[in-house]
Amino acid sequence: MTATAFWLVRLRNLFAVIMLSGIYSLFAAALYLVMDAVDVAFTEAAVGAGISTVLMLGTLSMTTDQEKVHKKVSPFALILVLATGGVLIYGTMDMPRYGDINAPINQHVANRYLEKSAHEVGPPNVVTSVLASYRGYDTLGETAVVFTAAVGVLVIIGRTQNKNMPGSTRARRRREDELDEPVKPEDGARKNEEASSS
Amino acid sequence: MMTEKPLLRVVAKLLIPLILLFALYVQFHGDFGPGGGFQAGVIFAVAFILYSLIYGVRVARQAIPASATRSMLAFGVLIYGGTGVVTMLMGGEFLDYNVLAATVHGGQHLGVFLVEFGVGTTVAGAMITIFYTFSGHVNDNLPFRKHNHVVTPSKKGDGH
Q1: Which of A175, A181, B67, B112 is the most buried (most CB within 10 A)?
Q2: C-alpha distance from B91 to closest chain A C-alpha (Å)
Q3: B70 shares contact with chain A (CB less than 8 Å)
Q4: Is the pLDDT of residue A171 over 60?
Q5: Percent of chain A clearing pLDDT 90 (strictly above)
Q6: Contacts by B91-95 with C-beta closer than 8 Å and gap 24+?
Q7: Is the per-residue pLDDT at B146 higher than 50?
């Protein structure tokens, strides 16, 4: 996993970077599986390795697939990154060992959930009952976040996709201004096709 | 495009119903095994994304139009919030599922089911909407797979 991460940083071809980040997600999913967090592993495999790879490829098709190389090394940025990394590593030193029975996470509400969830909620999968019932408010918030994210994408770049939407007519008018003649919506697309094949 | 990549097209045709079925399994079996609304929504969306990758976004838009995915997006949050409002109307607190049915377990089961369904609907709608928006923005007429060819010329340009 670490090797993949270093390789990711060194690569300049963004297409390979996206493929590698998908592989990285798959490794992460395997790691979660080893840690018995099946639900998280499931999500990581589906979202990290699946959907986000496709969405990044979609983004790539709007830009170029080569990263711009900056030769200049900024000393301030280097110091800042090193300091932040150092503080983060220092912070992990105080953390209890993985699976420690006395760790706060195993002493707080987790035990109560494990003991009473079958009585109070019912489903054998405690993760589901915690997410949907005990932490129902949080999950509602998360759903709203997903909703907001999709609406944000629609607002920012979704204007040209629907011919009935007001944004698309504006985009067409802009094309008309550039060419000094009216164009049908299909013409612009065909032009792109020709540009790509040449 | 219709005659290209017959292998991919046949395999996709076989796989897509299974993926959809698996999404439904993950959605409704989340109480007993790993999974739930979020994962199910993603898998459900993946089936349509795979379809549009291989058959082209235009064909996929006929199968599930963008307006439908946008409605799903809002409808899921509505189901989730609506469940909370219904529990309030039935005399409980917001998202207190106990009042939904005669028994505590029955109420909780129904509540979790509805809420997970809401999450799944929103996530599936969101993923397909985002994918449609990205691919629709590039070029409406071309299938998605060809877009990579739009990118590659710049790579060749850098080479010489």
Answers
A1: B112
A2: 17
A3: yes
A4: no
A5: 12
A6: B94/A137, B95/A136, B95/A137, B95/A140
A7: no
**Distance between CA atoms of A63 and B35, rounded to whole angstroms?**
35
Please name the member of A140, A151, A161 whose beta carbon is closest to the beta carbon of B80: A140
Interface test with A, best of B32, B49, B80 (most A CBs within 10 A): B80
- One-letter amino acid at B32 equals F
pTM over cut 0.90: no
Please name the residue that has the structure tokens 């629609």.
Answer: A154
Report chain A's C-alpha Rg in angstroms: 24
Asked whether the beta carbons of B73 and A151 are under 8 A apart, the reply is: yes
**Residue A175 carries which side chain, given as an amino acid letter?**
R
Contact A61 B66 (CB under 8 A): no
CA distances from B8 to A178, B4, B50, B145 (A): 40, 9, 10, 12
Of the candidates B129, B149, B158, B135, which has an alpha carbon nearest to the alpha carbon of residue B57?
B135
If you write DSSP's letter for every residue of A74-87 in order, what string do you get? -HHHHHHHHHHHHH
Which residue type, as a one-letter code, is found at position B127?
M
Q: Which residues of A62-84 are buried (b: 16+ CB within 10 A; e: fewer)?
A: eeebeeeeeeeeeeeeeeeeeee
Structure tokens at A102: 């006395």
pLDDT class for A159, splitting at 50, 70, 90? low
Find how far residue B87's CA is from the centre of its chain: 27
| B124 touches B42 (CB < 8 A) | yes
Strand partners, A48: none
Which residues contact residue A132 at a Cβ distance below 8 angstroms, ignoring those fewer than 6 apart? Answer: A139, B36, B37, B111, B112, B115, B116
| CB half-sphere exposure, B52, CA atoms < 13 A | 30
